[in-house]
Amino acid sequence: MDGQLHIEILGQNFTFETQGDREKAQKAAEFLAHKVQAASKALDGPNTAANKMGVLVLAALDLAHSYLELKESHEGFLDQIGSRSERLLQRMENKGPGGEDRGGSSTPKSGGV
C-alpha cells in the first residue's frame, strides 16, 4: 500500500511517499529515528549544523556496522546450510531405496554364506 510517511529527525519533520509495504517503511523510519536519537545522546553537543551532521554520521556508521555484522552472520549461516545439505545429499546417495548401504560406507559388512 502506498502512502505518506512522516518522520522527525533532530527536530526537523520529513515527509516521504512510500511505495510498497507502508508498515515496513514505518518500522524503518522509527528504527532510523531511534539510531539518530541514540547518536545524539552519545555526542551530546550544541545544537549546531556541524553537530547535527556528526550525529547523522555516527548514526549512519552504527547502521552500517549493524548491517555488516548481520550480513556476515547470514553468509556464515548460508555456508553452514550448504555444507550440511551436501553431507545429507551424500549420505542419501550412498543408501539404496530400502536404506541399504550401496558401498559408500567404510564399515565392512558381515554376512555368512
From TrEMBL:
Region of interest (Disordered), ranges: 88-113
Record Pfam families: ZapA
Any coiled-coil regions, as ranges: none
Comp. bias intervals (Basic and acidic residues): 88-103
Record field: compositional bias (Polar residues): 104-113
Entry protein name: Cell division protein ZapA
Organism field: Desulfatibacillum aliphaticivorans
Upper lineage: Bacteria, Pseudomonadati, Thermodesulfobacteriota, Desulfobacteria, Desulfobacterales
